[in-house]
Amino acid sequence: MHKTDVTRRDHVMTGFSKSLFAAAFVMLISSFSSVVDAQERCDTDVNGQACQQCQNGSGQCDYCDDCHHKWHLLPYWMAPDCVKKEDQMPGVMRWSKEDYYLRGQLPIGQRQKCYKGKIWPAHPRPTGPKPHMIHRFHAAHYWPHPYDVWSRNTVNNMINAHQQKGWQDATTVYEYHFDADSNELTDAGNMHIKWILENAPVQYRTLYLQTSAAAGANDLRMATVTQVASRLTAGEQPPSVVFRNTTAYGRPAQEVDTIRRGELQSQPLPRITYPSSAGPGYGSGEGN
After folding, report:
1. Number of domains the chain contains
2. How much of the chain is helix, strand and coil, in % rounded to 5?
3. CA distances from 210 to 5, 214, 265 (A)
4. 174-194: per-residue pLDDT in tens?
5. In this structure, are 60 and 134 located in the same domain?
6. Beta bridge partners of 243
7. pLDDT for 7-37, tens place per residue?
8. Phi-psi category of 89—alpha, beta or left, where left has phi over 0 and alpha has psi -120 to 50?
9. Considering the domain boundaries, does residue 19 fall inside one?
10. 244 near 236, Cβ under 8 Å?
């Protein structure tokens, strides 16, 4: 490449950089001028129409909507004290270690503000001081942490609650496990307690006893269950027995069998009868 072409290119790039810098400087001065105009309106026309929110009677800027919007066009170090106080942790010096620590605990995202009588943005957002740039970089770099951890913990807690409730139902000795007259455990009740002691995990190996409305039944049933559990553990530490005010979800098998037999016997005529056993050629199609 010729030396003249290199020199011409350098002059073009230098001119473009100067033009870009000049445009940015003009925009900065324009923004600063508009902010100064808003400040003057607040100082000189407190009760006027321009700044209706600055009606504190002191003649000083009360940080109205116009000032709020225009001051934020400038960097933090050029903003007035009323803007700096909005983004300052109470009692903490900005840029200090304590300030970094406290702002590191704040939620990430755009802050919600009131402008021209409206909330911006309209959906719920955090308010108050904003995190530092390093905190926003950390959130963007490790996104979606910590929200994925919170979501995972929420799901796990719900599953653990369901699991605990399921084992509580499975280790409950219900009223139908006892004889209605003697309050002694039936064979099904003894087998149920044996299954709990052999199959339930250690953390869920607690015997729950359904409470009864009959007078004196709770004490008798508690003594019976405790005695059977001590006998089945063979000298080991027996599980604790706790009363539980609940209702059985199902029903005894004998009751289900009685209901089914009554349903079959009450069928209206004509009734379809089925042979007890299929003879030779039954259903094979012979004789057609």
Report:
1. 3
2. 50, 5, 45
3. 97, 12, 34
4. 998 999 889 999 999 999 999
5. no
6. 209
7. 555 554 466 666 777 777 766 665 555 545 5
8. beta
9. yes
10. no
Asked whether 165 and 131 are in contact (CB, 8 A), the reply is no
Residue 50 CA to residue 201 CA, distance in Å, equals 73
Taking residue 170's Cβ as centre, other Cβ atoms within 10 Å add up to 14
159 phi and psi angles, rounded to 5 deg: -65, -40
What angle do helix axes 217-232 and 187-199 make, rounded to 10 degrees?
Answer: 50
Whats the size of the chain, residue-wise? 288
**Facing residues of 209 across strands?**
173, 243
HSE-up of 18 (CA within 13 Å, CB side)?
6
Cross-strand partners of 244: 210
pTM to 2 decimal places: 0.55
> Do residues 188 and 215 share a domain?
yes
Sequence-distant (≥ 6) Cβ neighbours of residue 126 within 8 angstroms: 106, 107, 109, 111, 112
Q: What average pLDDT does the structure give for the chain?
A: 78
Burial level of 286, CB count in 10 A (0-12/13-18/19+)? exposed
Pull the structure tokens for residue 181.
């007259």
| DSSP label of 179 | -
Contact, 136 vs 212, CB < 8 A? no
CA angle 198–188–183, rounded 5-degree value: 115
Residues 105, 65: one domain? no
- Both tokens of residue 56? 């504190």
